[in-house]
Amino acid sequence: MAKKIEFFTKKKIGFYKEGDSVPLYANKVGPFHNPKTQTRTDVRLARNRRAGVKDKKEAFGEETGWKYIHGDVFRFPKHKSLFAASLGSGTQLFTLTIFIFMLSLVGALSPYNRGALFTALVVIHALTSGIAGYTASSFYCQLEGKNWVRNLLLTGGLFCGPLFLTFCFLYTVAIAYSATAALPFGTIVVIVLIWTLVTSPLLVLGGIAGKNSKAEFQAPV
Q: For this UniProt entry, which segments traverse the membrane (predicted)?
């Protein structure tokens, strides 16, 4: 059966059917009130709810969806340095994961040889620190950031800082309980030297290259 909308007037009660013109006014709806000062718009009854919403949008000129929010979607974040540092560290970790998978596929690494896996993680992480510096610094400059040196420091400590604190806590617990899982002191010195002499310089070089890339932020349309 056709949908009907009941309306009341001073004289009779009637129904609007599909396809009938329904008078809509700026302040009140229906034929009961019809002052000359109000604007009248005739809208035909839709066959379904979705079509009715579409007809109302076309009748009243309502803008929703992408047209309504396109000016705010690509607004620069408030904490630009943290956002760029997270992007740089994430890119480095993603590259590290790809290299580990590739070495495992060619048979260079074995899950049963934990020492080789640990060594590969440390070396590859040190060598890919330039990727983190370049990505973070380049994107930070695209976001119109000014203090790129602080951004590099944040990029270098965003992942290594919490990792170092966790390692110190676990190492202290292992020493307190005389556990065999504690790393030798010589291994710790080697890791610190790698981070100081390899990771940090590559991070700075990548940051300088990213700052001088002069890439402009291009939002997708």
A: 82-109, 115-140, 152-177, 183-205
CA 215 – CA 131 distance, rounded (Å): 16
Binning the chain into helix, strand and coil, the percentages to the nearest 5 are: 60, 10, 35
- Mean pLDDT over all residues of the chain? 77
Cα 162 → chain centroid? 22
pTM of the model: 0.64
Note whether 194 and 122 are within 8 A (CB).
yes
Instruction: Using DSSP, state whether 14 is helix, strand or coil.
Output: strand
Residues 133 and 47 in one domain: no
129-142 vs 80-105: helix crossing angle, rounded to 10 = 150
Contact between 133 and 210 (Cβ < 8 Å)? yes
What range defines the domain where residue 116 resides?
76-211
